[in-house]
Amino acid sequence: MVSSVWLDSLFGNLEIALILFFFVWLFSWAKGSLGSEKLAVFFAILIIYLTVFQYRELIWIAVALFLLSTFGKELFSKLSK
Predict the structure, then answer these.
(1) Diameter of the chain by CA atoms?
(2) φ, ψ for residue 36 (rounded to 5)?
(3) How does pLDDT run across 34-71, given as a tens digit for each residue?
(4) Does the structure show a pLDDT above 70 at 2?
(5) What is the pLDDT of residue 42?
(6) How far apart are CA 11 and CA 49, in angstroms?
(7) Using an 8 Å Cβ cutoff, are 27 and 40 in contact?
(8) Which of 2, 39, 70, 79 is the most buried (most CB within 10 A)?
(9) How confident is the model at residue 27 (pLDDT cuts 50, 70, 90)?
(10) Mean pLDDT of all residues in the chain?
């Protein structure tokens, strides 16, 4: 029982950290793409709310997308050759 409460707490904290990390990543992308900082904040908040707080398990898809965009560029360039 204690270990299950501890595990739930650990995954809850991990999800919060991932949500914050995803928000910062999404904000920096939107700021570069949209040009306006206020619009980028609004866009990032809207996307975070719609994807993460409505369906909490989607944060893992966001993590996969981040890893793919960060480390996948080299992988896809090697595959295309």
Answers:
(1) 53
(2) -105, 130
(3) 888 999 999 999 988 887 777 777 777 777 877 787 77
(4) no
(5) 93
(6) 19
(7) yes
(8) 39
(9) very high
(10) 81
Q: Residue 31: name the closest of 20, 45, 18, 19 by CA.
A: 45
What would the two tokens of residue 46 be?
């809207």
Residue type at 64? A
Predicted TM-score (pTM) above 0.70: no
> Which residue bears the tokens 């939107």?
30
Spell out the domain ranges in the chain: 2-80
Alpha helices in the chain (DSSP H): 2-34, 37-48, 59-80
With a CB cutoff of 8 Å and minimum separation 6, the contacts of 58 are 51, 52
